[in-house]
C-alpha cells in the first residue's frame, strides 16, 4: 500500500523543477521571439506596399519591434486601407470613366460632341457623314457601313486631320509672343 506524501503539490513542484519544464520553457521563449520577429517582418512587408514615405514604414516597423505582439495589432489599426497599386489602379479607372463621361471633343473647337453627331453644334465642323442607305453616322475612315453593310461614301476633301491641322495653326497664330520680343 502506497501512502501519499504529506504535500499534495509535491508532484507539481517536481514537474516545474524538472529538465522537461526547462526545455519546454526555452522552446516557448524561442517560439515567442520568432513570432515577434515574424510579425515585425510582416509589418515591414505590408507597410512597403501601403506607404510611399520611408519614414512611415520605419515608424511602423519600430512600433512592431518596440511593443512585441501589440505593435503589429496597433499597425493594423493605423495602416491605410488599400495597397498603393490598388489606389493607383482606382485612380486610373476614375480618370478613364471621367473621360468617357466628359464625352468626345470636336477636333476644331474642342467642344463636347456626342458619338452620333454628324457636325459640331458649336463650330459646324463636319465630324461624320451619314450612311447613304440607313443614315447612321459613319466614321471618316470606314469603308462600309457597319449597320447596313452599304459601301461608305467617299469622304469630303476636308477630313478630321485637316481640321486638326487648321486648329493647331490657328492656336499657334493666336498665342501671345514671348515677353521681351517686340
Written description of the protein model:
The protein is mainly α. The chain folds into 2 domains: 12-84; 98-174, no CATH class. The chain contains 6 helices and 4 strands, in the order H-H-H-H-H-E-E-E-E-H. The protein has a two-stranded antiparallel sheet with strand order 1-2. A two-stranded antiparallel ribbon has the order 3-4. Helix 2 packs antiparallel against helix 3 and helix 3 runs antiparallel to helix 4 (70-78). The radius of gyration is 37 Å and the shape is rod-shaped.
In short:
By secondary structure, the chain is mainly alpha-helical.
Task: Jot down its keywords.
182 residues, mainly alpha, two-stranded antiparallel sheet, rod-shaped
Order of strands side by side in the largest beta sheet? 1-2
Largest sheet: 2 strands, antiparallel
Distance N terminus to C terminus?
A: 123 Å
Mean pLDDT: 83
Question: Secondary structure elements and their pairing?
Answer:
Blueprint: H1 10-16, H2 19-50, H3 54-66, H4 70-78, H5 84-102, E1 104-105, E2 112-113, E3 129-130, E4 137-138, H6 160-174
Antiparallel strand pairs: 1-2, 3-4
Helix pairs in contact: 2-3, 3-4
Amino acid at each position: 500500500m502506497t501512502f501519499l506524501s504529506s504535500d499534495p503539490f509535491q508532484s507539481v513542484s517536481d514537474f516545474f523543477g524538472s529538465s522537461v519544464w526547462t526545455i519546454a520553457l526555452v522552446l516557448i521563449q524561442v517560439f515567442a521571439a520568432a513570432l515577434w520577429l515574424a510579425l515585425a517582418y510582416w509589418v515591414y512587408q505590408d507597410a512597403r506596399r501601403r506607404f510611399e514615405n520611408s519614414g512611415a514604414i520605419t515608424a511602423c516597423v519600430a512600433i512592431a519591434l518596440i511593443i512585441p505582439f501589440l505593435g503589429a495589432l496597433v499597425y493594423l489599426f493605423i495602416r491605410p486601407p488599400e495597397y498603393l497599386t490598388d489606389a493607383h489602379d482606382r485612380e486610373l479607372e476614375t480618370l478613364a470613366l471621367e473621360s468617357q463621361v466628359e464625352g468626345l471633343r470636336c477636333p476644331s473647337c474642342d467642344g463636347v460632341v456626342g458619338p452620333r453627331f454628324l457636325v459640331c453644334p458649336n463650330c459646324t465642323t463636319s465630324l461624320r457623314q451619314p450612311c447613304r442607305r440607313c443614315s447612321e453616322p459613319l466614321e471618316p475612315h470606314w469603308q462600309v457601313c457597319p449597320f447596313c453593310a452599304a459601301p461608305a461614301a467617299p469622304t469630303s476633301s476636308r477630313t478630321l486631320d485637316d481640321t486638326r491641322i487648321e486648329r493647331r495653326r490657328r492656336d499657334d497664330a493666336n498665342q501671345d509672343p514671348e515677353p521681351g520680343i517686340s
